[in-house]
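Quick check before the chapter quiz. The format below is the same one you will see on the exam, so make sure you can read both the input and the output lines.
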Amino acid sequence: MQKKLIGAALAAALGTMVSGTAIAADVTLRISLQLPLKSHLGQNLVMFEEEVEKNSGGAIDVEIYDSAQLYKDKEVPAAVGSGALEMGVASLTRYVGDVPAVDIFYQPFLFDTADKVNAAVAKGSPVRGPIDEAIQGTGSTVLWWQAYGGAIMLSKGGPIKTPADMKGKKARVFGKTLGDFVTATGGAPTLISGSEQYLAYQRGTVDIGMTGVSGVKSRKLWEVMDTITVTNHADIEFVVVVNTDFWKSLSDDHKAIISTAAANAEADVRNRVSEIEAEAYAAAKEQGMEVYEPNAEELDAWKAASQPVYEAYQKNAGELGAQLLKAAQAL
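Here is the expected output.
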């Protein structure tokens, strides 16, 4: 059940009484999400919640704590891996400290078509399979991936057409490799969590934002930025993880119910991501935002300027990174 912290405490205190006996779920799954519940990732969790609770007959209770109530995005991997939290949603890049190779998805313009993205994120693919396995080494098991769409630029007073427009500008990023991209194209990166970016734009902490267009809609970023530049220079993926020891403690029946719901949730969000992005672009335009699509010459300038990002990745991501890059380029 979606609960605010106060609501959760109240519900726990009151309980549910039937014939004088408290009825409690056999298993409670607390899930931390940095985005608002109304976001498409939040609604994807609601879909998972409803299926799990229905098919378990209430034996499994899912509690969704949205908008970073429990943990910020950057804190989720450690919280889940340590067992402080049963489940969490984190941007894939948040695992870069333990598994540098995860930033394969942020290599500029590498996954430049929907077909390439879908092939890379397919369960057990030569790209995703090794990443899921590596994340297990952090104490967490990946249940499903959530599609977030392509990375875009946000700005005020006009689009960011080419790297020349980045010169001397501070840009919000949400991962090291995206920071490398900003540096390579002439800007100064600032790492800011998704839940904090609205204030960063509002206060002028940064000049440029980097996010997915669905986040513009769910966070109403049109109130603090007025222009979207559709670079689609990276593929943004989130992962829903469960503490591995906790997962192993569950019964086979409960694992089956959760795994099936996770697979259904993953398929649903992946199949609808293009529609979700289209709706977000339409909403942004309705709110008065300019949406600029770079031409071929401008995109070539971005690609040429971003080559150092590949060099840094190959240096830092080790053998696994080389393996993933080769697999990605073969798609």
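If your answer matched, good. The radius of gyration is 20 Å.
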